Prior knowledge:
By secondary structure, the chain is α+β, with helices and mostly antiparallel strands. Helix content is about 20%, strand content about 35%.
Amino acid sequence: MAAESPDRRAVLVGLAGAGAAHLLPQSASSAVASGGYVLGAVEGEHLVHFRDHGDVFIKIAPSTGSNNIALGTQQVMAGTGVPIHRHFHMDEAFYVLGGSGTFILNDVDHPFDKGATILIPRNSWHGFLNPDHELLLLWVVSPPGLEGFFRETCTPPGVPPRQLTHEQVNAIARKYGTEFR
């Protein structure tokens, strides 16, 4: 087996030092050092969304060894949608794991169902409407940053949700190269 690179060791030390090593299963924590890991459906960093109380799982991020992409899942409760926003520096993609609704991209409505793939180039205004169905979305952003927004606006399970104004959400979003209309 090849020796660990200093960068991979730093990730593990950083995870342990930040108290984040518990976010990965034992096999994944040790696998970060060897270049990869496998997570189950409800493994990863679990947060509860501040607005609709759906689950967010951050699966891949700089804190787990990837400096080029972030990936996770987001549950969007029926009738809550995702407000129109854009990312200045991130390309984003979604794969719809469950549900249906309307995706808005630059003011054009696009109906979608389970199994749809959605690509959003940076600087494109986008959001979701899901009046009748809960959504389960797999999201990927490159470069990373969306996961930081989730960490600052969402809370761990069992912790009361943050009460944030539109202005507060936008201030946090701007730190991560995002803005809401």
